[in-house]
Write a structure and sequence with these properties.
- This protein is an all-alpha fold.
- 62% of the residues lie in helices and 0% in strands.
- Helix 2 crosses helix 3.
- The longest helix is centred in the middle third of the chain and has 19 residues.
- The chain is globular and about 50 Å long.
- The two termini are 20 Å apart.
- The protein binds a DNA duplex through helix 3, helix 6, helix 9, helix 10 and helix 12.
Length: 217
DNA sequence: GTCCAGGGCCTAC
DNA sequence: GTAGGCCATGGA
């Protein structure tokens, strides 16, 4: 398995080069993007983030102070806008109540206390928490998303419905616990998933086509 | 018009 | 503890 994961990484990186994933100018913007992208195409999230910037709402203090209606209006293109506006408010309140509104203070906490803390926030599940941990807080946590699951399952490496934590443990066990590696590897999985593994038939040009023979399954 | 996207919560068994 | 319904917009 270790060798297969390393080969997968090599195949993707030689195809795409460095992705520098995740896009975002600040840690807070990354956290907001992590909530907005829940079950949503990134192109729609970009529109919502552009609206938030336009309205100068992409700061914890501005966002928590704005009305739910105004927030909903700004993030409407990302879908589920009522739920997500509430989740953004809840996240901001969490930041102020526990960390003086500072992502930097949040990130200073050790991973062992930080992850349960994030998972305890309504609207933050495992993937959203790990997005925030890895990309906003620079913690060595591997993000599992639908692409990761789909790609590995399609190549016969895992059973598709393996639990989140079990799949994450697999990456933690077989790849070195390095922030930069985890960021890039997940970014490459996102690129590969978007480009080649979204629909079937898929993998004619897939960077992973030689990695496993089951690519066409 | 139809399908689907980088989840997570809630409810019912 | 888990399966199923629900949330919503925009692009293919």
């Amino acid at each position: 398995m270790k060798q297969q994961l390393e080969d997968m990484y090599k195949a993707m990186t030689s195809h795409y080069g460095p992705t520098h994933w995740w896009p975002g100018d600040t840690a807070f913007e990354i956290a907001v993007g992590a909530i907005l992208t829940q079950n949503t195409a990134w192109t729609n999230v970009e529109k919502a983030i552009a609206n938030l910037k336009q309205a100068d709402l992409l700061h914890p203090r501005r966002m928590v102070a704005t009305s739910l209606a105004e927030l909903e209006n700004a993030i409407r293109p990302s879908g589920y806008y009522r739920q997500k506006a509430e989740r953004l408010h809840i996240f901001c309140r969490f930041l102020f109540e526990n960390h003086r509104g500072s992502m930097k203070r949040l990130a200073a906490l050790p991973l062992e206390t930080l992850r349960p803390m994030l998972l305890n926030i309504k609207g933050v599940g495992p993937e959203t928490a790990d997005d925030i941990l890895l990309y906003a807080c620079e913690k060595p946590v591997f993000v599992i998303d639908a692409y990761t699951r789909r790609i590995l399952a399609r190549h016969g490496l895992i059973e598709e419905h393996i639990p989140y934590d079990a799949l994450q443990q697999l990456f933690h066990h077989y790849l070195p616990r390095q922030v930069a590696l985890y960021k890039e590897c997940h970014g490459l999985i996102v690129y590969t998933g978007k480009d080649y593994c979204r629909r079937r038939p898929a993998c004619a040009q897939c960077p992973l086509r030689n990695w496993a023979a089951q690519c066409q399954q």
